[in-house]
């Protein structure tokens, strides 16, 4: 894959939609035309699906077609003012880069949600069609640090839009300030005309369905025996030490590119501009990813082979091979053989920050645990051709190795 692999994946001229994807784009276009014609707005269309089910590809194609229609003469889509929103700064870079190559798709069409909301409110404007990728990253509480003073970003977007099309994956919720579940989404869209569609087919990983199921169970805390097909058409490995895994990822990166080491939170790190190292078995010592001030996504910068990626730099991106370190936060409870979260070892307070609207301590603790497990799911599914895994917790590591040896 080339340096601009992420852009090529999303650019409409570089992919061919499946029949299901084509039908879904056509259905959303028809939904949009109907709502704009009948003026039953605001209206909402939601797409749900797990990591790798092609959600972003569909949105990219959809927005391209909306922009072509906006520059034509046929109503009701002609002369529409459309926007594409994404709350992930690294993913936003990809979309802006793509905009340079597509007719009528401009960089100014792509915004962070807060920028869009503030712009519309300040100018007393209403957008026609708003497409939101990674909508599970929308803020669901005020965040003054990010200049958002409302209660929920989706609610605010609906107030200044005629039609909203958004993607949700509840298994990719990775911060309490962005916490979403199905009940919250349904409550917000209930007053409006609403349609939805659920995607199930896995496009990113070449792994067997049985291994995908194993990863899904693993990210829910269930440690099951590895399926016999874990390595069928997919390079899945468990490593006894982190340094051996790092060397294997470097070798893969030299051969095919876009191969990176990533880790779950649970190692010391602060936003002070300095380097904060992860030290693990086998002499492993690497710094966390640095804030990326460039226009190039973190995963596509060659030098980041010498950094450990986080959920903040890797969510939403395809890698050829991923090597995941499970931090001290995650451990195997040998009484019930479940993977659990030790919150006493948390190092990212912002990720698990308390919410004033959730007063039940037990409920909030469950939310924090699920957010950490969600991050495992997201990071482990980054690799198209392979995923390598190492766990800091000795009991979990031994259980993984024992299961792995049985399928060798």
UniProtKB/TrEMBL annotation:
Gene3D superfamilies: P-loop containing nucleotide triphosphate hydrolases. Residues 43-393 form the Schlafen group 3-like DNA/RNA helicase domain. SUPFAM superfamilies: P-loop containing nucleoside triphosphate hydrolases. This is DUF2075 domain-containing protein. It comes from Fructilactobacillus hinvesii.
